[in-house]
Design goal:
197 residues, alpha+beta, 5-stranded mixed beta sheet, 10 strands, 22% strand, elongated
Length: 197
């Protein structure tokens, strides 16, 4: 192992936030949270984030990591990792092409469509085929594959912009008419030549 201990930062709703050393290359989420004194009662594990240098955000499931230490969801940590356990949020964010983007109070059992309606509905420039739901843990569900989950506290519903169709140019219309006229004249000429022979 390297002589200098690698460190992991644990922020947010744990008993003892701070920097913790990785004693070996097998320290997992459950172990580091145990060192940090465990989750506080107001912690929101579904919104936990793990950010790794040169990689970015890694999707994690802290609840499953704690329920099954050493399991697939109990990810091995690396030096420089930052683990953030947020406070339970009370809202769902709606962004993009809606009339009143912002945070909507979370309501149990409400679908993504309900939150969009609470944000004033979709504007004319909304691309309703490409709406997606980003859950609090960072996982994404899209319209293409079906949005199966209900938004959870801290999630975000994004309504993308849809570019308007290109207006038809007068020159394009003239060119199209000219092409049709050329084809018709050719067909008439061939018909006349065939008819004469």
């Amino acid at each position: 192992y390297p002589k200098t201990l690698e460190m992991v930062q644990v922020n947010g709703m744990v008993a003892f936030p701070g920097s913790y050393s990785l004693k070996n290359h097998e320290v997992r989420i459950s172990a580091i949270l145990s060192q940090a004194g465990g989750l506080r009662t107001e912690a929101y594990p579904a919104g936990a984030q793990l950010v790794r240098p040169n990689v970015g955000r890694i999707s994690i499931n802290v609840a499953r990591a704690l329920a099954q230490p050493g399991g697939l969801d109990d990810i091995v940590l690396r030096g420089g990792d930052v683990l953030d356990i947020p406070l339970v949020p009370a809202t769902v964010r709606v962004t993009g092409r809606v009339y009143n983007a912002g945070n909507i109070p979370w309501r149990q059992g409400k679908s993504w469509k309900w939150y969009i309606s609470m944000a004033g509905g979709m504007s004319d420039s909304a691309d309703d085929d490409r709406i997606y739901l980003r859950m609090a843990d960072g996982s994404i569900q899209t319209q293409d594959y079906g949005i199966d989950s209900l938004p959870n506290p801290g999630s975000e519903i994004v309504v993308p912009f849809k570019a308007p169709p290109e207006p038809v140019k007068f020159t394009d219309v003239i060119a199209a008419i000219g092409s049709v006229a050329t084809v018709l004249l050719t067909a008439i000429t061939i018909f006349i030549l065939v008819d004469k022979s």
